[in-house]
Amino acid sequence: MNIKDAGLRVGLPPKTIRYYEDIGIVTPDRADNGYRDFSDAHLHKLAFLARARSLGFSIDDCRDLLALWEDQDRASGDVRAIAKEHLAAIETKIAGLQDMRATLADLVQSCAGDARPDCPIIDKLQRG
Amino acid sequence: MNIKDAGLRVGLPPKTIRYYEDIGIVTPDRADNGYRDFSDAHLHKLAFLARARSLGFSIDDCRDLLALWEDQDRASGDVRAIAKEHLAAIETKIAGLQDMRATLADLVQSCAGDARPDCPIIDKLQRG
DNA sequence: CTTTGACCTTCCCGTTACTGGAAGGTTTAT
DNA sequence: ATAAACCTTCCAGTAACGGGAAGGTCAAAG
């Protein structure tokens, strides 16, 4: 299967798939004309990647997950460790964003937002 | 004032301040020896930047905010518009991360995380 | 007076995970 | 025969810096 159809099948743009090949994550076969040729196994792997990425796993995480996926005898604890670490990172990020949101929401609410020049938002940014 | 002390004063690493000069946000004076020389006005501007960045405003947002800050007659509505848009972006990001967190938390909880090979996390990534 | 160490300068590369675009070859449909 | 729609590789750019090299400057200590 050519790259465009492969992309449609797994929900990734061709550019992204080429990139994944560049960095050594997938290695499709090549047809005689030089075109990439994706087998079912390749598509399966790409779909796995797409799902892991959509859950926010980094490419490096994905490498590890793929290795574990392909290892029939790995311990589920190894997989869980990666997921837990990622979960913790996400929670840290959420907390940071929630702090920002609270401060910003305060500022936005305190500002009249009309044609007059006095603006508590600027005041706050100015004076800390 | 030299760059390191300026950085200590406003809470930014020298590298970051040089970067801000590179992209045209601040333009400190230069001493005879070529060293950057930061005035109170420069420090004030850098502090403003640091605070806006810490609230997650992009550099481009900061450019706009700085222009408004320096315009005594700007309408507070213009400032508020930027802040509101940023607030909306943050809320979108939080929602996306919360989705991820929910899915991941489910996965992590469903996985025994022991030495056995069967792992619901991998299963889910595999089958969608 | 020299030396050491802490500054400072510019410049270039690396980061994340792609995306856009150019130049050119191949295949398919008209 | 030609045009559209693929495909290929390669190069460059994104956001916002950080690391590190090569070299100039300055203040204090010996």
TrEMBL record, chains A, B:
CDD domains: HTH_CueR. It is found in: Cytoplasm. GO terms for cellular component: cytoplasm. Keywords: Cytoplasm, DNA-binding, Transcription, Transcription regulation. It comes from the Bacteria. Its main location: cytoplasm. Residues 1-68 form the HTH merR-type domain. InterPro entries: CueR, DNA-bd_dom_put_sf, MerR-type_HTH_dom, MerR_fam, Tscrpt_reg_MerR_DNA-bd. GO terms for biological process: positive regulation of DNA-templated transcription. Transmembrane segments: none annotated. GO terms for molecular function: copper ion binding; DNA binding; DNA-binding transcription factor activity. This is HTH-type transcriptional regulator HmrR. It comes from Octadecabacter ascidiaceicola. The gene is hmrR.
